[in-house]
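seq/struct pair 1
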Amino acid sequence: MRTSPPSVEAHGRAETRGPAATPATPATAGGPDLFGVYVHVPFCARRCDYCAFATWTGRDHLMESYAEACAAEVVAARGAESLGPASSVFFGGGTPSRLPTTLLARILGEIERAPDAEVTVECNQEDAGAARFAAWRAAGVTRVSFGVQSMAPHVLAGLGRVHDPDAVARACAAAADAGFAEVSVDLIFGGAGESDEDWRRTLEAVLALPGAPAHVSAYALTVEPGTPLARDRARHPDEDALARRYELADAVLGAAGFEWYEVSNWARPGHECRHNRLYWAQGDYRGIGCAAHSHRVGHRWWNVRTPERYVAALAEGRSPAAGEERLDDDQRAFEALALALRTRTGIPAAHVPEDPALDGLVERAGGRATLTRRGRLLADEVTTRLVVAPILPA
């Protein structure tokens, strides 16, 4: 699962064409009453070579003041923004599992939640244990997402990861023993030294984990500027290999009963991540913590990037917001289409032109258009050709 809301810029932006648009409402999240809260936990023991997120090492001394600042931001937002109950809460990072359980519970306790709210915490397998999981369950956590990346030691080394693959099985067993029915595994394909067979074995190993995780996110390795990976061209992924690995993931997971519901996410039916789907439906969410992004009806804003500045702002009673943007109706409509196109539900077919360049990339049925497996590999190409027009009934 993603650690932060998706940005359409990552998938390509096209000028809108056709008549003036109205904001789209893709049928991927279940309804307009859904509202999410994302809590960013920026602390890490070690920074991965590919990571460009707002994360820091050597800042653990800030954990208590940071948690209090997050709690204060929630309280302030409840009063000033009339936040409704959250249908989903997601603790991402960084490494949320590095946060002491009492501090995570302190933040979560301030977030008003719907009775059946989904609450996810990203977890490193090194941090997994019965006591931690029991405390999370008592606090209201319902879902655990493990950052596995690979089950091949040499591939992990090429990614700058240090965990032992055997720890993954122990972590999943501990989560199952603690009563977590919803467990997700995050993977990255295309790392240095990885073969197609290495990737197949990783997928098969994940499917055989204790507790039978019912959700898998698999992302192509991306070279982000300024990272150690970016400076080492020998470790850059091969585009053809990435395409093969994606197709292999879709085939192996599909054969095991998983269905893709977004380009990089597969789940057994009924086990999709509600918070993830909220993002792809262009839903409203409130970001808490440094560098966290928020969205409400086309208004986006984001917090200061560093934990020190964030803590200082809340301690002084100031807003931690660092910037904002407001999307007009055309921008919102295009973005809604671009995001929904990446889901299994797709978009109204009228928004995808009859273009020979899209042959084999899009399937049309029942008045809707969805990406084929090949189309998912070329989602950006399809997105640049979308026609933004008045939304037709779903």
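seq/struct pair 2
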Amino acid sequence: MTSTLVFKLLRDVRVPLLVTALTLAAFQCFWAKVVERVVGDLQPVFDLMANTSGLSLSRVREEVLFQGPGRAIRSLIGGSNVDLDRAQDLLTIGFVHPLVIVIFCMWGVGRGAGALAGELDRGTMELLLAQPIARSSLLAAHLIVDAITIPILCLSLWAGNAIGVAWIGPRIQVNAIDVAKLEANGEGGLKKLTYLIETPTLQWGPFSTGPFRVSLQGPGLLGGQAAERGEGDRLRVDAWPFGKALGFVGGLIFAISGYTVWLSSMGRFRWRVLGFAVLATLCMFLINLLGQMWDVLEPLRPWTVFYYYQPQQAIQGQAASWPMMAVLFGVGAAGYGLALWTFTRRDLPAPL
């Protein structure tokens, strides 16, 4: 009977699952193109602006762009663990982008709220439990559906990332900026590039000349080899390391679904459970975000599930991030355990 219920639940979610999976894959492809545009076309422009002002790009970024309200943006994209000069690190932002987080939350909250309270709200719980099925088997069916659908969402995210990386190539090409052309078009305020020319030593019998060093100023190109600054790995992208982050993606969705199922086991109306779950999830997200900038909220961050969602550290190979993933799955398992304890002991109201 449990298998029949599992197939029925899978039929119910097949359309939302397909839409969500395609949305996640499409966004990852889109984000790969965004990274190509930023690194290949915009980064040389930022380098040129920094060079003409006499400041390093990292100093401008830290002291101007990410100060004040800009700290919230830095927190959203991963904080100081992300090197914005590396294409691979920029690509990891797609796993923590607010849109992706919202999709995870929508799936987890929607699935959890409709699991038990949704059946009561529609008046179908009485008909369902009239069949030869225990309440624990009903919860087990929803757990099996999560075990099937969540990996599908994780793989769709990784597949979109792999397609995007294959689309932009294993190495992003940096487009050169012709400074002479910019100045010819009236783009003022650009300093000419300085060239240092050193002549070789010339020997004529007992006489020798050189070397002479001459410093010249003139227009040049910014980009290509100059923009790469000799950093071969800075422009490379690889989709395989992103597979290490899929456990965090699945853990976050499972954690949100777990505590929402617990709320659903105590509720009667789906919309009310949705309201409480959305409020709790939003509060945890804001506490984790603002706690990175406000010391008052910093001690509360470990009490949120988003504090343990660290896919970027996993992609970068930081071993200390794996216990965080275990916490996420533990929260989901605890939610289902509390839901089992609550649902098997409560009195179910008659349908209105």
